[in-house]
Design goal:
The structure holds three protein chains of three kinds. Chain A is an alpha/beta fold. Chain A contains 13 helices and 19 strands. In chain A, strand 1 (41-46), helix 2 (54-73) and strand 2 form a beta-alpha-beta unit. By secondary structure, chain B is mainly α. Chain B has one domain. Chain B contains 15 helices and four strands. In chain B, strand 3 and strand 4 (349-350) form a beta hairpin. The two termini of chain B are 28 Å apart. By secondary structure, chain C is of the alpha+beta class. The radius of gyration of chain C is 36 Å and the shape is extended. Residues 1-20 and 639-644 of chain C have low confidence and may be disordered. In chain C, strand 8 and strand 9 (277-278) form a beta hairpin. Chain C has helices at residues 2-11, 23-29, 31-35, 39-52, 57-65, 112-126, 132-145, 148-158, 164-181, 185-195, 201-210, 239-248, 258-267, 285-297, 307-315, 328-377, 385-402, 406-431, 440-462, 489-511, 513-523, 525-530, 535-560, 567-582, 587-607, 612-629; strands at residues 69-72, 77-81, 86-90, 96-100, 105-107, 213-218, 227-230, 273-274, 277-278, 318-323, 478-480, 486-488. The chains are: A alpha/beta, B mainly alpha, C alpha+beta. The interface between A and C is large, with 60 and 63 residues.
């Protein structure tokens, strides 16, 4: 903890400039006396509170505040009070890099929890690596990346997309796939991986229909008709949707309007959770699917108390919980555990202490941090219910997250291991470390 | 030449002096070169603001002086950023790839190196081919040339088509907006070969430079300040003298200038293209400081904000554009950064992160309605009037004539 | 086995253990088959149940399918009624056997695939069920996953069918099944010919399944193969591709790839050189090939296959597609039927695209029609037009919160949205735009300021999450002409709404006093004023009218898409382009513009269905170029009315 919020005696000017630079909404402690500690431990929260991504990310900011508050109520960390430093990168990708730098150099936070979109993560990566920060990233993503300074608490493709496709192949007997996505990196990469995986599993290239639409697409009539028409050769059709955000509303409305039932053409979505469904009338969508590592309907005691705590914190019993919230819950608690174990928040020490940490997740199994900085996660598949919740119909044992997918030839030879190999991009064929920093 | 220019435009001298003092002050306060009073991220913010000032001046020339309300200048800014970003990404990746391939038993062929670079850069967006667009990416001089040429060429073709068909006023604004929308939609596609929505990232890492970001930020700050000074002088030159008079005359009454025998289209095309090229340079300096460029940067809204800055700063005066860009962008980051204290009204708490845009929107209406001269207009009250007001709605007198008092 | 049964009996406390074949004991033989069912195992599980001869297996299957079977912690399978504490019901006897808390029970949730298998097994029980709903469920199951076994029960059930609709469906399904699984060639061909009539998805599916082919290659076509076509080696099917196929079929040696060369060279590095070529030179592909050739000569690597050899090998083989179906008569009939159907389908698809285009055009028209008045007629640039659309949509949302009945709420919301945005428009005109009539470019900026302010205010009030605006039940679903051509009712409603507004605005502008005054004021305000018209009042009303229509458009757009604070921004640029392309100052122009853009976008989408973004990009490019050549739009005003 040789960190210092103990300001290094910088003169007045910095104090004067600080408010101009800072975007800190500082959260008061829980009132306990933290006498042993001269400065609080700072937890940076880097989630957009305005702009297009505020929809999803504000909830995560609140989750972090709740977790910090709960930890302070338990007596803080290492006898110190935790202090959440919240900044608003405003869904503006370059601003993410700027705010990350600000968190690390001006506020000197010990750890950052943040980001949602992949592009924002790619924007932040060089800064985090340059300044040796620590980032916990809570959202399912496309993989093909490994950074020493980042812990990926969301799902890698093999923890969400691949099992969902397996479910389509084995349980639903789907023979023809429509991969519909919003045109950005997560759907593109995920669909690439899935195309390769499906072809490995004997699905012909012409039986895979891929379509990309812009963010916020609302005219879905033609695309849904195209998908329905896929069934003309008698093969059963399934839709893998990586459609993001608002566009889902128009898409599901069109599905309902064209009477596409889950029995005829099942749709499995990777970006639609409880939060997104609250903007929809789900009575026509019953039976369509989503794959996540957590559903609010998970029937465990941990989940029940998490939901209660969330409702109490946010003051609204109608608010839902979702998968990235669980990721933050696991990530934060693992970090606390690691810090307590080694007695310091020093970034290098924490990075070394993180792999091997275990923490019970909210769905009844245990999450373990792996040497590749990914978690083990169970894969849950849920069917949409009338009330906007999911009925969990399939739950696997925890699956180890894989940074580099095995289904694309370029990345099949790559491996990430920060414990033994000390490399995030290790080529197992040539047995060399391709690069130490991550690709961005 | 320059002497007469400076002599007739005292504001240029004053501006350059202020800019120089500011640059020295920031240098002295920066972490690498001075006493470390301001953080590296703030130096970057200031450097970026200077780049925004450059494009704001360009916008002022094209709108405030020439009367073309272009809602597409950020497209040129973005192209400049992309052009330099391609080299930055390519060169950085080449270093990594070379280091990695050096470990294999056989030395790599040129084809293997280029394949590996393609995989590195485009692996992120699920592809591995290096598109034809990147054929010059290995060469810094060629890409720097592209910073000037591509925006210039686009502006030339677009402007030639538009001005030739006498598309003017609001129509032209909408058309320029359509242009930037089309470009951003095109770049949003993965197939465009510029990594789609992800854009080019990690641009702050300059290949071959081992110095830390504290140094890099100062270098770029200096470069931006220099570019701003040069742009200011260039545009002061363009907007003064006889050519300046013609340009302003076009703004005030295009048909009359045409009847007087001037080739209006050529003048407009010249201004449009020149400002586009300067915008490209500004973008090339801006994005290495921002670290990432992606298509959202050139969405139509960005160009509208540009017009907002110029209007708030004061059209028809170059320093007005600088003031507007600096004032609004810094104020905006102060408000959205949560720096402004929340106001508690008792029944409702105004949090500025939420209400800043509302304030900006309405203050903009107020400026248009009540202060068409913008903030720059305030200087008219303090400055000694040496010659006439050449701002919008006030005719287009030449400096020699002066306004009949 | 016997012990397991005993155990099962012991476990089933109250079950009647009289017969070893009761349901509970069959289930207990392998509970995992039933409480964690998977599609692969369910068919066997169902067979086991049916084979056991236990009483009322059908009821159990139905409830299993409907997620109504629960398992008690002690292993018993039960039905339940009530909720917490649940009353347990024995699955064999149907009697109540006590209660249990939620914690002791696990609901069994078969997934959709398992439910499908169960449904397919249930067919034989349901086909002649007195309840029509069950018969329809059985037909649905056959429709989804028909198999040869269904043929006989289906044919048998046809006789006693009373409901004519169901009977017709049964007959249709019967011919589908006969076409695929019929006993005799004659019966199948007859069934296939009957399928050539329509364009329905299931008949095409049946035909395509009969026509399934497999690609293969051989020195000559084997005896008895039902060949679909011979693949000629030409530009599309290249020699390389053909040779690759030969190699993968094991009929020719594989070619040596660059990667093979590399790995062979790597494996033979000796003292910094490979076969006499120094490693340092290996960055040259020619040097690599030279070194590899030396390895080949030394017998240490597989030889290259020269192009001439490859061509000869390809020539020596026949590449062909063969039908999986051996009966040539059947495939011929199916092929002929399919050709007829395909022709009809492509005609239908064109019709469907045209319908979609009309629908898209009507949405653009509806979004732009307000602008056609404020911008087109008055010449005022209103960048906040999109936000008026958003205000209308939010009005609809708020009304739905107050009035739960969707039909009533829509009827209330439409005029209310008009009033709200009319008021907003009038206020904006009086406070801002009136002062800027002489400075159109500044109107653009001022209204843009209002636009971002309104957007943010909406965010502050309603949050950033999309809000539901649900259409009434009678607008759910689609008008289905056949399996290819259909259009959702909500889009038809939007189309009708657009037509109504077109008529309304034409009427107002051309046939009323207000319209006359509007036209007078826009053409020459000074002259109009001297004729006793109050231009201020007219401008205010006109602007209000345009804004009010935007509000109604907002409700309509919210119904079919989404309600967010940013929805207006999605339409604003598009709307301006619609008006500009169509021609300013003319409502017909806006209609023409919307149609052009709608059809164009759908047309481009049709050519490149996998990339909607490209369609939008090219459409905008087209518009930019179009305006260069026709700056006044499609319907250009002539003479004085054109102004400057």
């Amino acid at each position: 903890m040789e960190d210092g919020c103990a300001n290094r005696g910088l003169p007045m000017f910095k104090k004067f400039m600080l408010p101009a630079l800072s975007s800190a909404a500082l959260i008061a402690g829980a009132g306990a006396a933290f006498a042993e500690c001269e400065a609080p431990i700072k937890v940076g929260v880097l989630h957009s509170l305005s702009g297009t991504m505020a929809i999803s990310e504000t909830t995560l900011k609140d989750t972090m505040l709740m977790l910090v508050e709960a930890q302070n109520a338990k007596g803080g960390l290492l006898g110190c009070e935790l202090e959440a430093v919240v900044v608003d990168p405003a869904s503006d990708w370059p601003l993410f890099a700027e705010k990350a730098r600000e968190l690390l150099t001006v506020h000197e936070v010990d750890v950052i929890f943040g980001n949602w979109t992949s592009v924002s993560r790619k924007s932040v990566l060089p800064v985090i690596e340059e300044l040796n920060g620590l980032l916990f990233y809570p959202v399912q993503y496309e993989g093909e990346e490994s950074s020493r300074n980042v812990f990926y608490t969301g799902a890698a493709p093999n923890q969400q997309a691949i099992p969902a496709v397996d479910y389509f192949l084995e349980e639903l007997g789907v023979e023809k796939f429509a991969l519909l996505g919003t045109d950005y990196v997560y759907p593109r990469t995920t669909n690439n991986i899935l195309e390769a995986y499906l072809q490995d599993n004997g699905i012909a290239a012409e039986d895979i229909f891929v379509n990309y639409t812009p963010f916020g697409q609302s005219d879905w009539a033609t695309i849904v008709s195209d998908v329905v028409a896929l069934g003309a050769d008698g093969k059963s059709v399934g839709v893998i949707s990586t459609i993001n955000g608002d566009a889902n509303i128009g898409f599901y409305k069109e599905l309902a309007a064209q009477g596409v039932s889950a029995e005829d053409i099942p749709v499995v979505a990777f970006s639609v959770g409880e939060e997104e469904l609250s903007g929809l009338d789900t009575s026509n969508l019953v039976g369509h699917l989503a794959a996540w590592n957590y559903f609010m309907s998970a029937d465990t005691e941990e989940n029940a108390s998490f939901i209660d705590e969330w409702h109490a914190f946010i003051g609204d019993d109608a608010r839902v919980t979702n998968d990235p919230m669980e990721a933050h819950y696991i990530g934060f608690n693992m970090w606390v555990q690691a810090v307590e174990e080694i007695g310091t928040t020093d970034v290098d020490a924490v990075i070394d202490a993180m792999p091997g940490q275990t923490f019970p997740n909210l769905t009844g199994s245990t999450a373990e941090m792996l040497p590749n900085h990914h978690l083990t996660k169970p894969v849950l598949i849920g069917e949409i219910l009338e009330d906007g919740q999911f009925d969990i119909i399939s739950q696997t044992e925890p699956v180890a997250g894989d940074a580099w997918t095995d289904f694309l030839p370029e990345s099949a030879v790559l491996e990430s291991d920060w414990v033994d190999l000390k490399c995030g991009m290790y080529n197992t064929e040539t047995e060399t470390c391709v690069q130490l920093t991550s690709n961005y | 030449m320059n002497k007469t220019l400076l002599a007739s435009n005292r504001s240029v001298l004053i501006f350059l002096l202020v800019l120089a003092i500011f640059t020295v002050a920031v240098t002295l306060m920066a972490q690498a070169t001075g006493f470390g009073l301001i953080s590296t991220s703030f130096v970057k913010t200031l450097g970026k603001t200077l780049c925004l000032c450059i494009i704001a001046i360009a916008m002022d020339v094209v709108w405030g002086y020439c009367g073309i309300l272009s809602l597409g200048h950020f497209a040129f800014f973005g192209i400049g950023g992309y052009a330099v970003g391609m080299w930055l990404m390519y060169a950085r990746t080449e270093e990594i790839v070379a280091a990695s391939l050096a470990n294999q038993p056989l030395p790599a062929t040129a084809q293997e190196v280029s394949d590996a670079i393609g995989t590195q850069i485009f692996g992120v967006v699920g592809s591995s081919e290096l598109p034809a667009l990147w054929m010059f990416a290995h060469s810094l001089p060629l890409q720097l040339l592209a910073v000037l040429i591509v925006p210039g060429l686009l502006a030339l073709v677009f402007g030639w088509l538009a001005f030739r068909s006498r598309v003017t006023g609001v129509y032209l604004s909408i058309l320029t907006q359509a242009m930037t929308l089309a470009l951003s939609l095109y770049l949003f596609q993965n197939d465009s070969g510029l990594r789609g929505n992800n854009g080019l990232s990690g641009l702050q890492n300059i290949p071959g430079v081992s110095a830390g970001q504290d140094w890099v930020s100062v270098w770029f700050f200096w470069a931006s300040a220099l570019a701003l000074a040069l742009a200011y002088i260039l545009f002061a030159f363009v907007t003064s003298g006889k050519m300046g008079s013609v340009i302003r005359a076009i703004r005030d009454d295009e048909s009359r200038v045409r009847f007087l025998g001037y080739h209006v289209e050529t003048y407009k095309l010249f201004v449009f293209t020149l400002t586009a090229m300067v915008a490209g340079v500004a973008g090339a300096l801006y994005y290495p400081q921002a670290g990432i460029i992606n298509p959202a940067e050139i969405a139509p809204i960005a160009s509208i904000y540009l017009a907002v800055w110029v209007a708030i700063g004061g059209r028809g005066r170059l320093y007005g554009a600088v003031i507007g860009a600096t004032f609004v962008s810094l104020l905006s980051s102060w408000f959205t950064g949560g720096g402004a204290p929340a106001i508690n009204l008792g029944f409702y708490k105004i949090v500025w992160t939420d209400w800043w845009l509302v304030l900006l929107g309405f203050s903009f209406v107020a400026v248009t309605l009540f202060f068409p001269q913008g903030i720059g207009g305030l200087f008219d009250y303090v400055a000694v009037k040496r010659n006439a007001n050449y701002g919008p709605d006030d005719g287009s007198w030449r400096a020699e004539e002066g306004k009949p008092e | 086995m016997f012990r397991a049964l005993l155990l099962a009996c012991a476990l089933t406390v109250s079950a009647v253990c009289a017969s070893a074949q009761d349901l509970q004991s069959v289930l207990q033989e392998d509970p995992a088959l039933y409480n964690k069912p998977s599609r692969g195992t369910t068919a066997d599980a169902v067979e086991a149940l049916l084979a056991s001869g236990a009483y009322d297996v059908a009821t159990f299957l139905e409830r299993w399918q409907g997620k109504e079977v629960w398992q008690h912690d002690d292993g018993r399978f039960v039905y339940v009624t009530d909720s917490d504490p649940y009353t347990l019901i024995d699955i064999d006897t149907g009697e109540e056997i006590g209660t249990a808390d939620k914690g002791e029970l696990t609901q069994i949730k078969p997934n959709a695939g398992v439910r499908g298998v169960i449904g397919s097994a249930l067919v034989r029980f349901q086909l002649s069920d007195p309840d029509p709903a069950r018969r329809i469920a059985a037909l649905d199951a056959i429709n989804r996953d028909g198999s040869a076994e269904h043929l006989e029960p289906l044919a048998a059930s046809l006789e006693g069918e009373t409901d004519p609709d169901i009977a017709a469906r049964k007959e249709r399904l019967l011919s589908l099944l006969t076409a695929r699984f019929g006993d005799t060639t004659e019966a199948r061909v007859e069934a296939i010919n009957s399928l050539a009539e329509g364009v329905s998805l299931d008949s095409r599916a049946a035909l395509n399944q009969i026509l399934t082919t497999r690609s293969s290659v051989a020195a000559e076509v084997p005896e008895g193969t039902n060949v679909a076509r011979i693949r000629k080696v030409d530009d599309t099917f290249t020699v390389d591709a053909a040779y690759a196929e030969l190699a993968s079929a094991g009929l020719a040696p594989t070619t040596v790839s660059d990667a093979d060369v590399k790995s062979a060279l790597t494996a033979h590095i000796v003292d910094g050189e490979v076969a006499g070529v120094p490693v340092a030179q290996m960055n040259d592909p020619a040097a690599r090939i030279r070194a590899y050739q030396s390895l080949v000569d030394a017998g240490q690597a597989a030889p290259f296959v020269p192009p001439a050899d490859r061509e000869a090998a390809v020539k020596a083989h026949i590449f062909f597609d063969a039908y999986v179906e051996p009966d040539a008569a059947v495939t011929d009939a199916a092929y002929a039927a399919m050709r007829d159907v395909d022709l009809k389908v492509s005609a239908m698809q064109t019709a469907d695209i045209a319908l979609d285009a009309v629908s898209l055009a009507s949405i653009y028209f509806l979004a732009a029609i307000g602008l056609a008045i404020t911008f087109g007629v008055m010449g005022v640039i209103n960048m906040a037009h999109g936000e008026f659309i958003m205000m209308g949509a939010y009005t609809g949302y708020v009304v739905q919160q107050v009035i739960p009945d969707y039909t009533v709420s829509i009827i209330v919301a439409l005029p209310l949205a008009f009033c709200v945005t009319f008021a907003a428009g009038v206020a904006m005109e009086r406070l801002v735009i009136r002062h800027l009539y002489k400075r159109p470019l500044e109107t653009l900026l001022a209204t843009f300021g209002i636009s971002i302010a309104l957007q943010q205010i909406a965010k502050n009030i309603f949050g950033t999450q999309a809000r539901p605006l649900t259409s009434p039940g009678w607008l759910d679903g689609a008008l289905v002409f056949n399996d290819v051509v259909s259009i959702s009712y909500i889009r038809i409603a939007i189309f009708v709404l657009a037509l109504i507004f077109l008529a309304l605005i034409l009427f107002v502008l051309k046939r009323t006093r207000l319209g006359l005054e509007v036209r007078a004021v826009t053409q020459n305000p000074g002259m109009a004023a001297s004729m006793g018209i109050n231009p201020d009042r007219i401008n205010m009303l006109t602007f209000g009218l345009g804004s009010g229509i935007a509000g109604i458009a907002g409700v309509a757009i919210g119904l079919y898409a989404k309600v967010t604070s940013e929805m207006g921004a999605d339409y604003i640029v598009q709307s301006f382009m619609t008006v500009v392309v169509g021609g300013v100052g003319n409502v017909w122009g806006t209609l023409a513009g919307a149609s052009l853009i709608g059809f164009l976008q759908k047309g481009i989408e049709w050519f490149n269905p996998s990339n909607t973004l490209a369609a939008q990009t090219y459409m905008i490019l087209f518009i930019i170029i179009f305006i260069q050549f026709r700056p006044k739009g499609i319907v250009a005003l002539k003479g004085r009315a054109a102004g400057n």
